[in-house]
Amino acid sequence: MKLNEIIQKQGTSPDKLINILMEYQKTKNTKELTREDLKIVAQELGVTEALVYQVATFYTLLSTKNRGVHIIQVCEDIPCYVNGSVNVVAELENKLKIKMGETTYDNMFTLEHTSCLGCCNMAPAMRVDGKLIGNLTPEKISEIIDEYRGEKK
Ligand code: FES
Questions:
Q1: Does ligand 1 come within 6 angstroms of the Cβ of 125?
Q2: The pLDDT of residue 60
Q3: How far apart are alpha carbons 142 and 87 in whole angstroms?
Q4: Is the pLDDT score of 152 beyond 70?
Q5: pLDDT tens-digit readout, 106-129
Q6: 115: Cα within 13 Å, side-chain hemisphere
Q7: Residue 88: how many other CB atoms lie within 10 Å
Q8: Which CATH number fits domain 70-148: 3.30.930.10, 3.30.70.3400, 3.40.30.10, 3.40.50.300?
Q9: Could you point out which of 27, 49, 62, 112 has its C-alpha 20 to 30 Å from the C-alpha of 129?
């Protein structure tokens, strides 16, 4: 679905801003909101480009950067940190052969930090394509990545 079709469906009220950005981002292979996208949304909703940019860069579910097919967001807040999120990140970086904030060469995975995911009782936790996964261990990371690569069922 094109951006103007989504705006037409959602309506042009400024309170639809996040919904429009989320829905449009999902339709893009790069999962990236470009400057041109933000400009169009601002014009259609009658708000400033600065406001749209602030929203697009504030929420971790939105991005103004090119991202892979699967977006892995590792919680970096204290409960996850004390339960070993550093080891989880190290295993993800090792398995994916990228550093935090990067996208794999085949554009399959993007690795990001995020704030608390609201599931501290299963720390350390991460979100993959919106799905929460907790009680992570380096072994579990390897299995999860293999599953997303389609190498394991
Ligand atoms: S601190 Fe990590 S999920 Fe809450």
A1: yes
A2: 82
A3: 12
A4: no
A5: 999 999 999 999 999 999 999 998
A6: 4
A7: 23
A8: 3.40.30.10
A9: 49
Sole residue written with tokens 């602030």: 54
Q: Indicate the top mutation candidate among 75, 82, 86 to test ligand 1's pocket, ranked by most ligand atoms within 8 A of CB.
A: 75
How close is the Cα of 78 to the center of ligand 1, in Å?
7
CB of 80 closer than 6 A to ligand 1? Answer: yes
Q: How remote is the CA of residue 53 from the centroid of ligand 1, in Å?
A: 26
DSSP-derived letter for residue 147 is H
Ligand 1 mean position, distance from CA 124 (Å): 7
Closest-lying ligand 1 atom to the alpha carbon of residue 124? 2
The residue extents of the domains of the chain are 3-58, 70-148
Q: What is the pTM for the complete model shown? A: 0.78
